[in-house]
Amino acid sequence: MVPEFGHFALILALALAVLLSSVPLAGALTGRSALQGFARPLATGQFVFIAIAFMALTRAFLLDDFSVAYVANNSNSLLPWYYKFSAVWGGHEGSLLLWILVLSGWTLAVAIFSRRLPADLLAQVLSVMGMVNVGFLLFILLTSNPFERLLPNVPADGTDLNPLLQDVGLIIHPPMLYMGYVGFSVAFAFAIAALMRGRLDSAWARWTRPWTTVAWCFLSLGIALGSWWAYYELGWGGWWFWDPVENASFLPWLAGTALMHSLAVTEKRGVFKSWTVLLAILTFSLSLLGTFLVRSGVLTSVHAFASDPTRGQFILALLGITIVASLTLYGFRAPAVHTRVRYGALSREVFLLMNNVLLMAAMLVVLVGTLYPLVLDYLGGGTLSVGEPYFNLTFSPLAVAVALMLGAGVFSRWKRTDGGWLGRQLLWPAAVSLLIAVIVPLWLGGFEPWAFVGCFAASWVLVATVRDIWGKSASRHGRMHGLRRLTRSYYGMVFGHLGMAVVMAGATVVSNYGVERDVRMTPGDQARIGDLTFRFESIGDREGPNYTAQQGVFEVREEGRLVTTLYPEKRIYNVQRSVMTEAGIDAGLFRDLFVALGEPVNGASAWAVRIQHKPLVRWLWLGAIFMAFGGGLAISDKRYRLRRRERKETDRQNASGVGEPAAEGGPG
Amino acid sequence: MRAFCLLALLLVTLNAAATSATYQFESEADRERFRTLTSELRCPKCQNQAIADSNAPIASDMREQVHRMVVEGRSNDAIMEAMVSRFGEFVRYRPQVEPRTWLLWLTPLIAVGVGLIVIGVLLIRSSRRSPESSVLSEEDRQRADALLNGSPRDD
Amino acid sequence: MRRLYLFIPLALAVALGVVLASGIGRDTSSLDSALIGEPVPAFELATLSDPDGARTPDVFRGQTQLLNVWGTWCPSCRVEHPELMRLADEKGIPIVGLNYKDNRDAALKWLEERGDPYSVTLFDPQGAFGFDLGVYGAPETYIIDAEGIVRYRHVGVVNEQVWRETLAPVFEQYRQEG
Predict the structure, then answer these.
(1) Which domain holds residue C52?
(2) Burial zone of C157 (CB within 10 Å; 0-12 exposed, 13-18 middle, 19+ buried)
(3) In CATH, what number is assigned to the domain containing residue B36?
(4) Domain boundary at B53, B68, B94, which?
(5) Domain range spanning residue B133?
(6) Are B64 and B17 found together in one domain?
């Protein structure tokens, strides 16, 4: 009965979502505050029913209810309980339910944390989020019902969760990723509401900023987790493959990063409004596009869900309606008038605009690279592949350019920056970075052009950021006082930028100086990488909860001293009979040692073994943690807490003409 | 999120290592060449892997052929060409520069170029319009004052 | 006028949508052969039944034929075999077999047990000719015209529906031209 309750809860949630998307909006448009007041209870109710549905599905998994088709296809009674829990989002239907849960969660969060927002604006924002909810609830109910039963022939046991997904990284990766993806819907809803009201002003940017930042933090962590998981679970030691599905999550990240920066300009200076609002729409559209690419089967990917044309068509229709409606609204309502604010060529405005140009170019490179084969095929241009070499060649220079611009940009001031002064500020970062960029590659094993450029860019960001803190923390009352005086949002920015430097350093060093050896080894054999000796000690059988494994033992020594012992495994999962490679990894801040078992050669005495030394590979994920931490700091700035109290007044001021007048049409 | 198709499951094992471990080369340069070529050739069977990482039988055949041609001393271009003539442009992970891929390769340049032009236009407008408009409003104010008070004020 | 610029994103989005819509339901797993419109690559192979006889691309001259790539190790080949028998026996379609990376005895036994739909079966144990042909997974079926030019390739099992809807129209077209 419980699964039916779940299904019924989803239907009720749909009904509430329909009401949410219409009633408060009607209230806002007609000025009836009684109708606007429905927004918050409806958002709450919608979340509650979706949560009930989610719990019903979770219960089915934990209790091994194989009469539910989705459970039977994605679980097994032998699965450890925590994987049974994460198996809830291990397939298309359940992960879609998680998507919707997260979406309604964000809707609820807006309802809770935006109490100080003008009631009509809040009503409009929640209505827009309600519309997105309607779309996805229809999607799940009409094409992908997770509660479908296998009656009367209930299978005795499930076909198990895909072994690749039986992993800690995969328990948290999808929720994080969805928190990010879906979180951009808030910025989107604010943008649409602002367009409907015809009032795009600094207040709008200020309200949107913290939401965008939170979503961005989650997405950064989600992508990093995915990369980390691919690194140790796929068995190759690669950390980014430019696979369409990876690109799908990277696109909204790039657009979201641009959005965060352009929101800063719009908030502080009231300029580039049309651009910022377009970015807000674009970022969420790219999230939807990602969802479409992953679930429609239009592109081949190692990661895609089993494709189903009906689902593809439905989600494309959803994507189409969302984008066409919002861009049409944009076309009619976005301000076409240029604001009369003055800024010089070296102003912070222009630096942030350059950041946007470069990030958008990077986003376009990824987007065009991902979709080009599809477009070419459509135009009858034949088949073609766009892979890693293309992205490395086009994306890397843009990333370096972003870093160079960033290092100079942190010193810039609003309105105008003195060129000579800026030059003097940059002297130190340039000198130090040059030194680092020469020394580090030589120390790591020889000069490489890309290593030089990458190290320069990373240290440029680092040194410029530190120099900027130094300059800004100067105080008559001592350095500590100066440091304490800087705001949390400033430190947030610092951590975000340091995170970028760390990621760049990691990516540069590991791709240029990582060593990879494929060797054939029998127990007793040794292989060397630099000063490290990898000795294949033995191989034996091991019994896991739902798999059997052959586990190798490798001792790694440096000049006779034992560094670590690694236990790579070759697992065979009992139910799906699939073979998985579990790499043995010794993680370190400065290097990872990585051993993976390939196939036995010559019967079973010798094994093909892949041995890797990966310097700074951890920095890739460490940098993402820095970024997310920075974002967290930024939104905890007391500015936002104070402002929340003052919002009513701000809005009154804006309404009375302090903000930019709308291009056309009065307030909604 | 990342549920995988059954096909992919069969491919993620490390069979690639089994074969590449056994290849012999005359020089380190040749080994490097082999590494580059096999990482830039896409497997036609399993599709989202380079032949270096795939364990489909065809990928292993292709590696063998690449190895043979590298040892024979054929150039990288010739080896790529030999593969493309059999399996089509599909196997090239690095698309060639040709009319149908111009747009692909020019994307970064176009994007950055357009962006720079827009910024340039904005800067010219900003520097041209703002002083004028402030001068005009100054004049307007004076004119308005003159109309109201009968004479321009000096302050 | 300036407002028109604001509609550019909409136009781009719609264009992209059309392309994406066309991609839905597309089969991304099979590739067109690189040899379409090209002559069959040169080869000199023994046949399955005659280890000493050497055959060249001349076997494809004279009439439009099917070239079917198969092996006893390939489960899908087992599935499509009855359809090939039907095509050869009932429709009189000439089929050249290419026994790919296989063992001669096993292959001969297979044909003995299941029937032999092939006019001749080329024996390619190393897969050298298959490689030149761009075979990436058996079974594959090619349509080769009377001049020995490759006209079409189907990757995967040939069944009644595939024959009727995909292969037969192309085959008839070239047979009539030849």
Answers:
(1) 32-177
(2) middle
(3) 1.10.8.640
(4) B94
(5) 101-149
(6) yes
CB-based contact A7:A137 (threshold 8 Å): no
Number of domains making up chain B: 2
**Amino acid residing at A316:** L
pLDDT digits (tens, 9 = 90+) for A561-608: 999 999 999 888 888 887 888 899 999 999 999 999 887 876 667 888
Task: Tell me the residue type at B48.
Answer: N
CATH number at residue C75: 3.40.30.10
Does any domain span residue C19?
Answer: no
Q: What is the pLDDT of residues C4-49, one digit of tens each?
A: 888 999 999 999 999 888 887 766 667 778 888 889 999 999 998 8
Whether residues B34 and B74 share a domain: the answer is yes
3-state SS, residue B50: strand
Kindly report, residue by residue over A114-146, the tens digit of the pLDDT.
888 889 999 999 999 999 999 999 999 999 999
Nearest CA in chain C to B58: C136
The total of structural domains in chain C comes to 1
Residues of chain C with pLDDT under 70: 1, 26-29, 178
Q: What is the ipTM of this complex?
A: 0.86
Give the tokens for residue A249.
Answer: 């999550």
Shared domain for B61 and B136, answered yes or no, is no
Across the interface, whether the CB atoms of C22 and A378 are under 8 A apart is answered yes
Are residues B111 and B58 both part of a single domain?
Answer: no
Contact A197, A329 (CB under 8 A): no
HSE-up (13 A, CA, CB side) for residue A161 = 29
The answer to whether residue B43 is domain-embedded is yes
Q: Parse chain A into domains and list their residue ranges.
A: 1-166, 515-619
B154 assigned to some structural domain: no
Q: Which residues pair with C154 in a beta bridge?
A: C141
Question: DSSP 3-state assignment of A347?
Answer: coil
Tell me if B35 is assigned to some domain: yes
Using DSSP's 3-state secondary structure scheme, residue A494 falls into: helix
Whether residue B6 lies within 8 A of chain C, CB to CB, comes out as no
In angstroms, the CA C152 to CA C30 distance is 12
Inter-chain CB proximity C34 and B86 less than 8 Å: yes
The single-letter code of the amino acid at A446 is G
**Chain C residue with minimal CA distance to B59?**
C136
Of the partner residues C9, C19, C31, the one whose CB lies closest to the CB of residue A378:
C19
Contact A243 B48 (CB under 8 A): yes
**Rounded CA separation A381/A384 (Å):** 9
Phi, psi (degrees; rounded to nearest 5) at A566: -110, 145
- Token pair, residue C16, equals 């992209």
* B17 closest CB neighbour out of A91, A398, A608: A608
pLDDT by 10-residue block (mean), chain B, 155 residues: 34 42 79 89 82 82 91 93 91 92 95 94 78 46 52 39
User: Does residue C10 sit within a domain?
Assistant: no
Chain C CB contacts of B61 below 8 Å: 127, 131
Helix/strand/coil (H, E, C) string of A122-167? HHHHHHHHHHHHHHHHHHHHHHCCCCCECCCCCCCCCCCCCHHHCC
Question: Using CB atoms, which residue from C5, C9, C19 is nearest to A375?
Answer: C19
Indicate if B117 and B41 belong to the same structural domain: no
CB contact under 8 A, C34 and B44: no
Min Cα–Cα distance to chain B from A301, Å: 6
Which one of B1, B3, B88 has the shortest CB-CB distance to A383?
A: B88
Residue with tokens 């190290």: A455
Residue B56 lies in a domain: yes
Distances in Å between the alpha carbon of B54 and those of A385, B9, B151? 16, 11, 88
Q: Does C2 fall in a domain?
A: no
Q: Does B45 touch chain C (CB under 8 A)?
A: yes
How far is A373 from A385, CA to CA, in rounded Å?
A: 6
Q: Are residues B81 and B33 in the same domain?
A: yes
Distances (CA, A) of C31 to A10, A616, C27, C77: 42, 40, 9, 19
